[in-house]
Amino acid sequence: MYEFDYHRASSVADALSALGKAEDGTVISGGQTLLPTMKQRLASPSDLIDIGSLDELSGISADGNGVTIGAATTHATVAGSGDVNKAIPALAALAGGIGDPHVRNLGTIGGSIANNDPAADYPAACLALGATITTNNRSISADDFFTGLFDTALENDEIVTGVTFPRADKAAYMKFANPASRYALVGVFVAKTGEGVRVAVTGAGEDGVFRVEEMESALAGDFSSAAIAGISVSSDGLNNDIHASPDYRAHLIGVMARRAVDAANG
Amino acid sequence: MPTVSMTVNGKSVSGEVPANTLLVEFLRETLGLTGTHVGCDTSQCGACVVHVDGKAAKSCTRLAVQCEGAEVATIEGLANGADLHPMQEAFRENHGLQCGFCTPGMIMAAVDIANRHGGKVDEETIRHELDGNICRCTGYHNIVTAIAAGAAAMGK
Ligand SMILES: Cc1cc2nc3c(=O)[nH]c(=O)nc-3n(C[C@H](O)[C@H](O)[C@H](O)COP(=O)(O)OP(=O)(O)OC[C@H]3O[C@@H](n4cnc5c(N)ncnc54)[C@H](O)[C@@H]3O)c2cc1C
Ligand code: FES
Ligand code: FES
What we know:
The complex is a heterodimer. By secondary structure, chain A is α+β, with helices and mostly antiparallel strands. Chain A is 33% helix and 25% strand. Chain B is of the alpha+beta class. Chain B has two domains: 3-77, Ubiquitin-like (UB roll), CATH 3.10.20; 86-154, DNA polymerase, domain 1 (Orthogonal Bundle).
């Protein structure tokens, strides 16, 4: 790891000012992605601004409409939250299936979505539930937030402060985990909310998370796995790597989507 | 150079270290606590697991400066003098180790599993909870048996 200057931010405002002053500064939250990347010398920020222990970014609040999760809330906290388990159990289960217990104790939702790894789990939940991402100066819908491989709508020096998920009538996430890394080879989040039905896929797309509109329309009419049994997803634009071919991933999307619908129907 | 202070196994410690010092480097090199191992350095193997403020964490994926003011527990802090901790005793009794390289991380993870799931934790849960700990020798069978026995003993 190259050298850098470390600052522990005392507030979001303090973090923004430190970012502004740094030559090539970056925020660190749980560090479960950034530190491995820095150790491999794939990132070499001049300054690390630590927002991981800011109280104003941590915690979960719920009301009749849904739940809001602070950006620095860990995966373990989301998995164990009574509010999340009550409002959107599928979201708590997703958080409890990220990586391993040690990663879940440190990794945070803000870091996960800001990073937008094409195999990460949270982006699928955000897109399927129609979440709203809040930053230090605006709100961004999940549809506009995830813009491509490791790419988001965030400007330089913009900090995610929280994510708001609407309550779901029915929802489930099915992940076919890579047995070594635990990241999703294919993960499908299916949700039925006041806004309609959405199906979001992670792990498979070359450009990251995406929706399957053909499945969404079929499920809007009949929310059953039978309704999507005849739909095959094209392998165009799907990842091809040592773990799986595009065709295999396309097949898995169908399987995981049907399992998710069955699970959502309980 | 930043100064960092924390509590390790109940003792206050501090040191001047470059900001890019990992917690595991601080433990091993600055404090000489070499029980915590580095198996992969890519955040996958769990040989480096310690407890930070009561929660299991990979000390190769945490900066020492991030642990300012934290309470850290390592494998060296488990035994009470010559008396092994019940989880250490269970690993010894059940042959939960061969070369022993993964063992410090396994035992710290195991104590964390017992803390969260209690003495009656079942085999499936233990195996699932070990997602972040790799052993290249044992095939896990005796590790799982040891954790079940250790968790039961800790519950007593
Ligand atoms: C062994 C292992 C297994 C894993 N398995 C999975 C898995 O199965 N599924 C999965 O989804 N993830 C997995 N992860 C990744 C893990 O979930 C990370 O915690 C997460 O991707 C990043 O969160 P973090 O808080 O650690 O972010 P950091 O590493 O601190 O930061 C990541 C990036 O986001 C930026 N950032 C962080 N917070 C903010 C913010 N509030 N605003 C703006 N930018 C910000 C940082 O500058 C950095 O560029 C795994 C990681 C490891 C080490
Ligand atoms: S050395 Fe930390 S996970 Fe392998
Ligand atoms: S006993 Fe050798 S790696 Fe586990």
